[in-house]
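Worked example

This section walks through a single chain of length 407. The input is the sequence exactly as stored; nothing has been trimmed or padded.
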Amino acid sequence: MKSLSILGSTGSIGTQTLDVVRQFPDEFNVEALTSNCNLELMEKQVLEFKPSTVCLFDEEKAGTFRQLALPEVEVVSGMGGLKACCTLEKVDTVVIAVVGAVGLEPTMTAIQNGKNIALANKETLVAGGDLVMPAVKKCGITLIPIDSEHSAIFQCLNGEDRKTVERIIITASGGAFRDWNKKDLANATAEHALRHPNWAMGGKVTIDSATLMNKALEVIEAHHLYSMPFEKIQAVVHPQSIIHSLVEFADSSIIAQVGLPDMRLPIQYALSYPRRLPNPNLKRLNVPDCQDLTFREIDEDFYPCFKIGVNAGKSGGTAPAVMNAANEVAVLAFLDKKVRFLQISEIVESIVKAHSVKPNPSLRDVLNADVWARKKAQELVSGARETEANGFKHCDLSYFSRFGGLL
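Given that input, the structure is written out below as tokens.
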């Protein structure tokens, strides 16, 4: 039986992970659960799965949770609490299902403590891939991706000589706006963007899907996960989300992983690897139904975030961390209706251009770059709100240029 620590248990991936655990009570038990501040759902999860440790990242919420006096549960908080949940002696595998760069430090802590990683958090490898993957190798642990695309690539590479890989092809649904005209994006709202046609995901990931930033993050992840140069990684729009990714080999053969869009499948595979467990709750694909599988190139003019993100990955050093942090701030501002949809890419691009990249960064360098980018992005959000109040539809780019050359 594997003992799990699930970071982000009340979020979309976390709750689906618990669905898998619920299906296999003889295979998995839960030792620790964490959430930012969702007290109500956390209490239900604790009563059902009976972990020894719970982390509420918000200290005030953690204090409230302690007053519930649930039996035999230690309640911790903050980054220290997240790290504590990664070091528990009984834990075999840590599921990193938190959203954003907050996942980097606990992931590194888990690796250094010999815990295997089931990784759903894109930002960890985007911001700190040059630190994470060498640590995985040094500590001799296993890191299995949970993203449907990277789970697909991982499965396609099983038993293959990676030196013969000619190309990795990552598929993208295209998000909520894939059939929109570009001119209509100026009036796109958060409500529009959150109506993903294929997947049930959290807010931040769903907006990243609408901008296609999520695919840029996955390209950077693939670079780190599979030691693959960027020129061998391609992303394409595949609206049906049936083929989750493909790998082309030197002999021109292409292997694809195919299935219905359900995150519980890659979650289960990551937890049970190398075994495949039968799960009657997962629907099976009826192949004759798949008569119209289509693909198209990514229009970088329609999806500017994709190009910005991939270019930051190619720059390396602290650039991906800065890009990622700026994107997190911009997406949150969009969800809070503080900026318009098209301003997300404008904010991210401005922050990336203002940053002086530090090569071969330490963990502290990455975290400092993250903090800097968030501060500057918040300032741009404030500037965007001022511009909006003055009657302009988009951010005043002259305001952005004030940050040129900083750091």
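What to look for: Confidence is low (pLDDT under 50) at residues 390-407.
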